[in-house]
Structures are given as structure tokens and as C-alpha cells.
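Problem statement: downstream parser choked on a complex file, so we are re-checking the raw output for the flavin mononucleotide run. The parser issue turned out to be on our end (a line-ending mismatch), but while we're here, posting the original submission so the record is complete.
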Amino acid sequence: MKTRITELFGIRHPIIQGGMHYVGFAELAAAVSNAGGLGIITGLTQKTPELLANEIRRCRERTDRPFGVNLTFLPTVASPDYPGYIRAIVEGGVKIVETAGNNPQKWLPVLKEHGIKVIHKCTSVRHSLKAEAIGCDAVSVDGFECGGHPGEDDVPNFILLPRAAEELKIPFVASGGMADGRSLVAALALGADGMNMGTRFIATKEAPVHEHVKQAIVAASELDTRLVMRPLRNTERVLRNAAVDELLRKERELGSGIKFEDIIEQVAGVYPKIMKEGAMDAGAWSCGMVAGLIRDVPSCAELIDRIMAEADTIIRQRLAGFAVG
Ligand SMILES: Cc1cc2nc3c(=O)[nH]c(=O)nc-3n(C[C@H](O)[C@H](O)[C@H](O)COP(=O)(O)O)c2cc1C
């Protein structure tokens, strides 16, 4: 399938694996890219620029297809060495960067200077337009359904995507709630040029996370996520567990006076415990409502092939049958 996104990134299928903390390692990114999508290494999961450089090398050993690196500018406990990470990206010959969390304007000149294409993740039309205005090549539009940080506007993709299509000139992918061929066709119908998936790619054979994480996603329904940290204006959609119940209890008890320190136990440093050790109640971890549509753990190639075949069938059979005249 050819879209503006496949053309922009030189990929076969318009499917991107979004950056995911402690999930987006070389194994997953390479598997997605080898399957014809765009795999993305999560930059900040690597504690130093040197480690990111090594992860980029490990990915390159596993694929000769294009892959990207995610750079997230969210509030973090430690302040990351962004110039160092960008150096690792440039020197590693990576040509695609997914930015997220905050306006990437400051970093665009150096990325552009090295011929790097930038796709910025946005949760609103106004931020998407800003990304376009500052020179991003594409945007990933994240609806309210998404795992991770949906922003504070709470606009689901059935509204957000056609609104983005009305306003944007640069290509965009639909992100949040995407799982299968139906999602892809719907995203295209709403004006997107492809789709980005997070949660769906965690439940794949190559995702280098503990089996408990994959099984938790398969077992979860669309009712099992919760929004945390809203009072801090850092809303995150996570899978409900004992730590999340405790976090929400604190939010109710402390109200608008709550501070990050009050919930640090439930949110700081929990990803390695969950993703590597499979300690499923260790803290709050991002997960999308799309868990309700995930029922198996295929390889990335099986998943992407299935999505493309299903999309093709829907377009040729179901939709063509509805054409008027
Ligand atoms: C476990 C997990 C960790 C994530 N970590 C990041 C991250 O570090 N940076 C980022 O930009 N997005 C992150 N995301 C968001 C994803 O890249 C993607 O935008 C989102 O998962 C899309 O929604 P979906 O889960 O419904 O597919 C994360 C998502 C999940 C599920």
C-alpha cells in the first residue's frame, strides 16, 4: 500500500511502532521494520547517549530497513542529555526521529541539517498545526483512547482525526486504539495516511518484555485502563492494577494539592520492574483501551501481514460493495 507516509519514510506498509519506554528496544524495532513497517527505538530508555548509540548499532545488525528513534520531552525526574542523544542519532545514521511530549522546535535545525525526518506526536489539532508550522515532516495524532499520555483535551480519534485532516497539509498517522485491518481502513477513511500502534506491538513475539506483560494485555478488556496524574496535568492512560488503585486513592484523598512526590512510589522507576521482571503490580504502566481488541501474541510479521490482508479484504469486498452508483 502506498500513502504519503510510506513514501516519506521509505517503508512498505503505513504502520509505525510508536516509541515505548522499556519496550522499544532493537529487537522490536528491527522486527517491525523487517516486517515492512517502521520500528522505533525509545531513546530515553537508554540511560546515556553511549547506550543509545549501542542500541542503534544493535538494531542495524538486525535490519537493513529504515527505523527511527523516539525522543520524548516529558517532565522526567532527571534531566536527560538531549544534545548527546541527538549526536548518537546523527552519528548512528538514523534518518527518522519521532518526537513527543513537548515542542521539538529547539532541536529541529540540527535534525534537519542532517537530513533527518521528524514525526511529532500530538494529542490536539492546535499542537499538530504548530508542528507543521515549525517544519515537522509529519505528525502522529494520538486520540484519547491511546496508551501513554493522551493530553488534557480528551478528544477521541473519531473526532480528532477528521479535524486533523481538515487542517493539516503534512501527512499524519492515526495513533491510539489501532489494532488491526479495520483500524487501518478506518484511519485512512478519516483522512490519515497510516497508523501508529503502541499497545498492540507489546503483545508480539519479538517485544522484549516479560511474558506477564503480554498476557496482561491479552487478558485485559477495553474497560481495564485508568487515567492517572490528571491533577498534575500529566495525564497517563495505564492498565489498572493494585498500584494504580492506590495511586487513584491518593489522588482522591489529596485532591488538587497532590504533588509528584506523593505518588513517586507508584510511578518512578517502575518500568524495569514491570517490563523486565514481570512484577505486574509494581506501579503504573501505560496501556491503551485497545487492549480490548488484542487476543493473541503473533510475530510482528504475522501481525503486519494480517493487518494488510484484512485491510485489503475490507476495501475490496466490504467497502466496494457499498459504493453508490
Ligand atoms: C508501555 C508504553 C510506553 C510508552 N512510552 C512512550 C514513550 O516513552 N514515549 C512516547 O512518545 N510514547 C510512549 N508511548 C505511547 C506510544 O508510542 C503510542 O503513542 C501509544 O501507545 C498509541 O496508543 P495505543 O497504545 O492505543 O496504540 C508508550 C505507550 C505504551 C503502551
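For whoever reads this later: Residues 18-21, 23, 42, 70, 72, 100, 121, 142, 145-148, 175-178, 196-200, 285-288, 290 surround flavin mononucleotide (CB under 6 Å).
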